[in-house]
Amino acid sequence: MSEEPFNLRRIAVKVYSPSLLYGLGLGAVTPIIALSALDRGANLATSALIVTLVGVGALLSNIPAAMLTTRFGERLAMVFAAGWASLGMVLGIVPSNLGLFAVGVTMLGMAGAVFNLARQTYLAEAVPLAFRARAMSTLGGVMRIGVFIGPFAATLAMKWLGIAGAYWVGMAAMFIAMVVCFRIPELASRAPLEAGQSRAGGSMWSIAKDQWRILLGIGLGIVCITAVRSTRQVVLPLWGENLGLDAATISLIYGISGAIDMLIFYPAGKVMDKRGRVWIAVPCMVVMGVALFLLPMTHGVPAMMAVAMLLGFGNGIGSGIVMTLGADYSPVAGRAKFLGLWRLMSDSGAMAGPVVLAALVASATLGAGIWAIGGVALLGAGIFGYFIPRTNRRRMGAP
């Protein structure tokens, strides 16, 4: 009997709905974490530091997340992550002191590391290679839709419940995601193992030694793209402030850029599946690099709006590229552990980008800092252009 043809729509609800809910919960609280810290007595510098704890929690938890996912499986790891995030939201609801609130914010980052790794591993196992990029791009797009909706849901809740309303929305979304994850079926891997191999693979260190060429080669491109992506969220508001625009105008520009980013994920995934990863990875970085070089040359709302839309387009066509490449290069034995290392590199880039920008702004100018990040984007394009065409398709499971 022949195997039933794969249909992405068949798994869409049970695979993507937890990510939509998780993104909604995260999006509900992300804009008000700094305000919540201020309410608990933090000054501006401390509140900014509290916001970074989400990234710190994720960065420190990538390796434990890989071990947890390997030990208990993708489904239970996602259940645990959503439950842990719900508990973190509770510390935003209760009138806790600043220290406990900081713990709750860190818990959100820890949960995100586990949830993101588990969902990526799940899709890498569940979806055949011919549909992988579309599946991963859709995953990234669905998460972005949730993050986009979250602040609006939080705004409605805060009308009645005050600032705690955002955390009530976040907790509810995470709890529902946890329940939905319980109903996701366990997977039997599609990929065969070689004789004598264990699906858990070796230790993290042995996997790092075996895959060091990939991690230090294309992995550097991953550091570049995540550094650029995390920094682009900062440069638009900063440049708008530099031009003297009011908060409402800056928010409108940022929102339109985000809307374009959010709407084009599926066509990008289809191009990656049909033509190859390089056809999206390189243009994504080049377009963002060009937009970042143009941004300091803008002097009014129309020009800044156009550049912001170009930046959103560049980021949007790259939706899912980091997850897709991670799944492509991950070995069958020890996949979760390899992806833990992959996410460690991507989160390192996401943390480093804004730090580099801040250092350059302090020592030079905002425009110079933005141009430097544009240079990082072009460096990433060069790395992807060199390494991705040399991908071993046989190793990835292609015929």
UniProtKB/TrEMBL annotation:
Sequence ranges assigned to domain Major facilitator superfamily (MFS) profile in this UniProt record: 11-392
Gene3D superfamilies: MFS general substrate transporter like domains (1.20.1250.20)
Topology within the bilayer: Multi-pass membrane protein
PROSITE patterns for this protein: MFS
Membrane spanning stretches: 20-38, 44-64, 76-94, 100-118, 139-158, 164-184, 212-228, 248-266, 278-297, 303-329, 341-362, 368-388
Keyword annotations of the record: Cell membrane, Membrane, Transmembrane, Transmembrane helix, Transport
Domain of life: Bacteria
Cleaved signal peptide residues: none
Subcellular location: Cell membrane
Protein name: MFS family permease
Organism expressing this protein natively: Paeniglutamicibacter sulfureus
